[in-house]
Amino acid sequence: MYVCVCNGVTDRDIQRAVDEGCDSLDALAARTGCGSTCGCCREYAEEAILQAKSMSLGLPIAA
User: Fold this and answer.
1) Tell me, what DSSP letter sits at residue 57?
2) Distance in angstroms (rounded) separating the CA atoms of residues 13 and 25
3) What is the pTM of this model?
4) Residue 7 to residue 32: CA distance in whole angstroms
5) Inter-CA distances, 31 with 28, 58, 63, Å
6) What is the pLDDT of residues 31-55, one digit of tens each?
7) CA–CA separation, 1 vs 18, rounded Å?
8) 33 phi/psi in degrees, rounded to 5
């Protein structure tokens, strides 16, 4: 699913970035551009980062 339409960043891109060491929205924006154009996706991108971190650690995702 696309998280950032402006920069074409998907939830899989975010998962990959987290797996490779991105741990904040600023780091994600620097790596992918997510959240750096119009900013509409920033809130969801932060949530996606938390979910990606949980998946990387094998933790259940809280709703």
Assistant:
1) H
2) 13
3) 0.82
4) 8
5) 5, 24, 27
6) 999 999 999 999 999 999 998 888 8
7) 16
8) 90, -5
